[in-house]
UniProtKB/TrEMBL annotation:
InterPro entries: AhpC/TSA, Thioredoxin-like_sf, Thioredoxin_CS, Thioredoxin_domain, Thioredoxin_ResA/DsbE_sf. GO terms for molecular function: antioxidant activity; oxidoreductase activity. Its main location: other. Gene3D superfamilies: Glutaredoxin. Residues 156-191 are annotated as: Disordered. This is Thioredoxin domain-containing protein. Residues 184-321 form the Thioredoxin domain. One of its GO terms (biological process) is cytochrome complex assembly. It is found in: Cell envelope. Residues 156-166 have a biased composition (Low complexity). CDD domains: TlpA_like_family. PROSITE patterns: THIOREDOXIN_1, THIOREDOXIN_2.
Amino acid sequence: MAAFRYQPVELRLPQGYEFYGLLRLLGRFHHARLKGRGLADDEILRLEPMLTDSLLHDLACNLQEIGLLRRDEQGEWLLSRDLDQVSLADLYECTQLSIPVAEKHLPYRDDSLGRAALAALDDLRLPLRERLQRKTPLLLLPLALALALAACKPAQEPAPASSQPPAQAPAPSTPAPVEETPAERTTAEFPTLKMKAVDGSEYDLAAHRGKWVVVNFWATWCAPCRKEMPELSALHAMRSNIEVVGLAYEDIEAPEMQAFLTKHPVTYPIVIVDPFDPPADFATPRGLPLTHLLDPQGKLAHSFLGPVTAAGVDQQLAASQ
């Protein structure tokens, strides 16, 4: 009799959310590649217990068809080319998986891969034809191991699946922790920044000495980033001692950003930065939004990971004085 791999309800991937499983799977393959190894089927199912044997087989075959995945001599799966050579359109066309339009309970949505996958799905719910051809969301997802759209908390590895279902439904197991690549650099004590803003003006951080400066890393596809924009605009417009600058951390052209800002206007300058070559004096963001608060002398006073509020800024100003 074939072994039966029991899946508690809490660990099952809802129908229609296979794309979420695919994005997590790519993250696992990317991390394995960084360590110079492949992944066997049983190890994949242990790392991502939400995947069924049949879904894993189908996804692996789809990725193999577009030359993204291959088996080595030991039967382990390996990435066969860089993910920055693949667009979301490639994945969408080869898998024919639906893009979910509503949120449901998803297993492990709160670990780094889960949050990154949800951010990518959120991006895909924007005008689809325009977004599918962009490579950035796909690349940034597996690079959650390096860029991590959110920090990953250590977790215990799940126990191997039992061959027989337990008498009662077990508590949800915890997926194997995603080891994240350390940031290549940290934010300088007195960071500098001199770049051209979207409106064509030159932005020089040094020119704003004498005031508190809020340096906000964000992206148009990041829902929490969009949510905090009105509060940042109010800080910039209504506080004489505070100025804000938004660093758009994504692969986007100025005209597209200008169109976005027409629909989502802000009072502060926006600068587009290369997500693969961020400003040298700032650490590679390991989550979005990420906000740095600089004091009037230009010294780093505090960093916020996650949405920032006026109350949070005021609290840090009071603590620094």
